Amino acid sequence: MKQFEEGKKLFMKGVDGDKKAVKLAYDIFLKLRNTAPNNALIEAYYGSTLALLGRDASQPLEKADKAQEGLDALNQAISKDPNHKEIRMLRSNVCLRLPESFFQCSKVAVEDISFLLNRYQKDSSYLTNNQVRELIKDLSTAYQNMGNPDEASKVLKRLSKKK
Predict the structure, then answer these.
(1) Which of 20, 48, 68, 108 is the most buried (most CB within 10 A)?
(2) Which residues contact 44 (CB under 8 A, 6 or more apart)?
(3) pTM score, two decimals?
(4) Please, are residues 54 and 72 in contact by the beta-carbon 8 Å criterion?
């Protein structure tokens, strides 16, 4: 558990651009993944760190391969635990940041974000107000990435009502 929390801290530093932290987080999640192969959350963080390794890679082919491996791991994590909030958030974040022209995964981000917002509709304690605002912005971005600006605008109108 302590290793997992350390991996998450390093992961967050990596999200903010610390390339060394990404490599350290990857090493931690790879080890944890080997010791707990059926843990969906570990699989999700492993996949997310792979995507960050892809972001930081210098060779285009390595960028694409790492990103795809990361997506595959995130998809596997969802198949293991489709109702896990943190896993859905991780996958939607990765999908939103990958180039749509190459990965076409904004639709997956829309699925994940819609799942989370639907859960929130049934239980307002499921997400914080800040998480809801961020998810609505992300949903708008996903629709924009998919070439659907009308839907993106509708989503942003929801956000203005939320504030």
Answers:
(1) 48
(2) 73, 74, 77, 78, 84, 86, 87, 90, 91
(3) 0.93
(4) no
